[in-house]
Specification:
Immunoglobulin-like; 3 domains; single chain; Rossmann fold; about 575 residues; alpha+beta; six-stranded mixed β-sheet; five-stranded mixed β-sheet
């Protein structure tokens, strides 16, 4: 064997093999090496959508239906992403679903995006289920994306049910009676009373002996959705040899499954009077409503935010979302954190920017703000307002803890580094109002998704204390309107399903529904009503929003408008 190898090497030098490596007779196996990173890549999956085939536009995957999963993959890192591969995990392990494979993305440069589309289909054996898919992008050097959960509904097979819903006869000529030798018209209606779409519908008319069609005896419908109808007209005549007292026509209806059709005999007496004013009323059965829950990573108020036609350079906003108190203070647990306050503030910022028309340069946004940060920003916006010489319009929003002084009962806004036992470092609510008034704004609107009784969304800063304090209420001066989440000793509560404070959620919802075309009176009344009712339903606790304003605004505040 060794001698044979020696012979081959001698007869064919290495240069020969090098020349032949691309030939069909001899090929080297070449492996692709992933380049080593010189900076980290950061893959981010966004804009995840499920799209059905639009055959019934229900945004669900029906039995025997095809759809797609689409999303954007972006490299937000500073390094290049190599050989990225999309992995999809069927977390619910639902049967009857087939998910296609996606191609690898050889290279994704920094800030570069790729639109990914993956086919998905269901067979006829699928059952009703909520499908959860986990999407993740794996990168060749290990800079994998965070997983994203996509949820949508799948529905089991829903059969159509075609019926001949009704029919009537009329004559084309003569005195309104069926007569031999004269043309008669049969009008009939096909209805789909099932829950599935009927496709490839075929309708045929059968005639008895001595009855003849004027035109075709065959009709077709491409598809018929649930509870929809289709009307047809069929003309015929009988010769003088027809001996029966009535004419009976067969209407046969079939569809693609061959199991959900109908057959009906339509008959009419030869001496029946057919008045030209005859009418038929079809009792239509409403299609059953299929409850569909939209998949989304966010609440509906976080999307489709109304956009004002123009920005208002005189509007200023200060938004504070204080959620994380536990990491800034020793001796308190995470239960005192204010759930969803960060999200409240972020989405409120979007509404103030897009709907209220606040310019970006006039937008001040703090998350988990300390006492010094809050005081600095409050002083800054007051100085800006003073220099606008009475033309400023201020919007102040706070989501977080409030707390009353146990002796004076004065309410305070609580920064994340301030405890309930050291309120002197907090923000005296009425001192803040006075600062706003001294800055001489044309209008100032305060939104408070906080309570001042010692309670909180999950727990107060002194959660062990059972007795709540009724905060002191002082008169408000200046052009200030305050929309507060609670009254007296109540707590400002969350709406966990929407990932917002319940007050903020219904505030945003009304702004979204009205497209910002709303006055303060209508806005507050709607928010107060919804919060009062839904808080009892959702949290089983009362929460009644409150409106406060200076006496000089008694007949004016209600006419203030969001968009002017």
């Amino acid at each position: 064997m060794k001698s044979l190898l020696f012979f081959l090497l001698a007869a064919f030098p290495l240069s020969y093999f090098a020349q032949q490596k691309n030939s069909s007779a001899f090929k080297f196996v070449e492996t692709t090496k992933i380049p080593k990173p010189i900076a980290p890549a950061k893959l981010v999956i966004s804009n995840v959508k499920f799209n059905d085939s639009q055959r019934n536009n229900n945004q669900a995957l029906d039995a025997s239906e095809k759809g797609t999963i689409t999303f954007t993959l972006k490299n937000e890192g500073k390094g290049e992403a190599y050989e990225s591969e999309i992995i999809i995990d069927n977390k619910t392990n639902a049967k009857g679903i087939r998910i296609g494979t996606s191609k690898k993305i050889p290279l994704l440069k920094p800030s570069e995006t790729s639109i990914i589309e993956i086919p998905i289909s269901a067979n006829s054996n699928i059952e009703n289920n909520e499908i959860e898919l986990i999407l993740k992008a794996l990168e060749g050097n290990g800079f994998d994306s965070d997983p994203v959960s996509l949820k949508f509904n799948a529905f089991k097979f829903r059969n159509p049910q075609l019926v001949v819903a009704d029919y009537k006869f009329s004559n084309k000529e003569g005195e309104g009676k069926i007569k031999l030798g004269e043309t008669v018209s049969l009008q009939f209606m096909i209805q789909n009373k099932g829950q599935g779409i009927a496709k490839n519908i075929k309708i045929s008319i059968s005639n008895p002996i001595n009855v003849f069609p004027v035109n075709d005896t065959f009709f077709e419908i491409v598809q018929l959705e649930p509870n929809k109808t289709a009307n047809f007209s069929y003309d015929f005549f009988a010769n003088t040899r027809y001996k029966n007292s009535e004419i009976s026509l067969g209407i046969s209806v079939s569809e693609s499954y061959k199991n959900y059709g109908d057959y009906k005999n339509a008959h009419v007496s030869l001496d029946q009077v057919l008045t030209k004013t005859q009418s038929v009323t079809i009792s239509s059965q409403d299609a059953k409503t299929i409850e569909i829950e939209d998949f989304s990573l966010t609440a509906e108020v976080d999307k489709n935010i109304p956009v004002a036609t123009a920005k208002n350079p005189n509007r200023i906003a200060l938004i504070i979302g204080n959620e994380d108190y536990s990491s800034k203070q020793e001796g308190i647990g995470t239960e005192v954190n204010v759930a969803f306050a960060e999200n409240d503030a972020y989405v409120m910022k979007e509404y103030l920017t897009q709907t209220f028309g606040v310019e970006e340069q006039n937008m001040h946004h703090l998350v988990n703000a300390t006492g010094s940060e809050m005081k600095k920003k409050i002083n800054l916006v007051c100085e800006i307002m003073k220099r606008m010489e009475g033309n400023a319009e201020l919007y102040f929003y706070f989501a977080g803890h409030g707390y009353p002084d146990e002796v004076t009962k004065i309410p305070y806004l609580i920064p994340v580094d301030v405890s309930a036992t050291n309120l002197s470092e907090g923000i005296n609510l009425y001192d803040m109002y006075r600062k706003f008034a001294d800055a001489n704004p044309k209008k100032a609107t305060v939104f408070l998704d906080a309570c001042f009784s010692g309670g909180g969304r999950d727990a107060g800063l002194l959660a062990a204390r059972a007795l709540k304090i009724k905060p002191k209420q002082e008169p408000i001066v200046g052009n200030i309107v305050v929309l507060s989440a609670t009254s007296d000793k109540q707590s400002a509560l969350p709406y966990k399903a929407k990932q917002h404070g319940i007050f903020t959620y219904f505030l945003l919802k009304k702004l979204q529904e009205s497209q910002g075309e709303i006055d303060y009176s209508t806005l507050f009344n709607a928010v107060a009503k919804n919060v009062s009712i839904e808080s009892l339903r959702i949290n089983e606790k009362a929460q009644d929003p409150q409106i406060l304003f200076g006496d000089q605004l008694l007949n004016e505040w209600g006419s203030w408008k969001v968009i002017e």
